[in-house]
Amino acid sequence: DAKTTQPPSMDCAEGRAANLPCNHSTISGNEYVYWYRQIHSQGPQYIIHGLKNNETNEMASLIITEDRKSSTLILPHATLRDTAVYYCIVRVEGGANNLFFGTGTRLTVIP
Amino acid sequence: NAGVTQTPKFQVLKTGQSMTLQCAQDMNHNSMYWYRQDPGMGLRLIYYSASEGTTDKGEVPNGYNVSRLNKREFSLRLESAAPSQTSVYFCASSTHYEQYFGPGTRLTVT
User: Fold this and answer.
1) Between A42, A49, A98, which is nearest B97 by CB?
2) Which of A26, A89, A102, B40 is the most exposed place for a label (fewest CB within 10 A)?
3) Contact: A98, B90; criterion CB under 8 Å
4) Which pLDDT tens digit goes with each residue over A54-76?
5) Is residue A52 left, alpha or beta, with left meaning phi > 0 and alpha meaning psi from -120 to 50?
C-alpha cells in the first residue's frame, strides 16, 4: 500500500470549511483513497473514500487531483465535534481490507 | 445493532500474566481485525481474519495469538504480558470497503 503524507496539525474556525490535505505520490492505479477520523480516544470512524472522481456524502467531500497524487478532505462547516485526528489511507479495495494508519492530522476547531 | 463490542474496557496486568481480549460484531461481516495504538501513534495491525476459520499476521503480531471462534467473535490473547504491550487495543470488522471499530480496551502491564 502506498505511503501518505499529512500535516501533523491544523486549526479551523467553527463554521468555516476545513480543508485537510494528503499527499500520496506513489499511489497505484487500483488503490483507493480512504479517510477515517478518531475523536479523542474512541475507535476510528470511516468518513469517505474514492478512486479518482470527487466524492461527497453527508459528512464530507473528497477532492482527488487528476494525477491522483494528492487529495483534500473538506468538512464544509466545521463544528467543535469535528475536532479529531484525521487519517488519510491509500489501499486496494477488497481482499483482507486491512488499513495502514500513519499519525494523521490533528484538526482543532476553534470557537 | 450494537456494532462492535469489546470486553473488558480497562485491564491492569502484571508482567507475565495472561489474558484474553474479547470482540464481537453483530453486522454479519466476514472480516475482523485487531489493532493496537500506542500514545501519539496511529493504529498498527496485529492480526486479522478475512473469514471464519482463517487468521493472518499483521504488522506487529509478536507476543499475541488470536482465535476466530465463529463469524461473530474474534479474540486476542496475550500469553505472557510485557510492559511493551501497554496500549489501547481496538477490534474492527468490515464490509468490502468500510471498517467499523469497537470502543477499545485500555491495557496497562506493570
Assistant:
1) A49
2) B40
3) no
4) 999 999 999 999 999 999 999 99
5) alpha
